[in-house]
Amino acid sequence: MHPKTLFLIILALTILGCNTADEITPKNVAGDYTGVFQRGQNTSNVTLTLQDGNWSGESEFEKFPALCSGTYTLSDDNITFVNACIWTAEFDWSLILSGQWKCKWKDNSLVITYTNGDQYTLTKQ
Hints:
Blueprint: H1 3-17, H2 26-29, E1 31-39, E2 42-51, E3 54-59, E4 69-75, E5 78-83, E6 99-106, E7 109-113, E8 119-124
Antiparallel strand pairs: 1-2, 1-8, 2-3, 3-4, 4-5, 5-6, 6-7, 7-8
């Protein structure tokens, strides 16, 4: 067999054999999630729903993190949240779910991490 043909066959098999389940798409990210928000040593149980570019969430502790509702967009391995709620000024606004987060998708788990180290570890229900 010609080396170029062999290379193309191996390349095609490699591409076809790749696991696309780890790719984050609007279709596979949509759903209801439960999990934990972590900032430093502090944690809170959370629920998050992602559906058709809209999100909503709740936290075990009021405003830790500050979850309400809004929209989200996906791009590569990032998810960007826009928070649509009105917030009062008496707490740390960096706890509001908004901005661009890094995503890691594995099986039924979604881990999103912010540049300051905040992290949501979520399991799709």
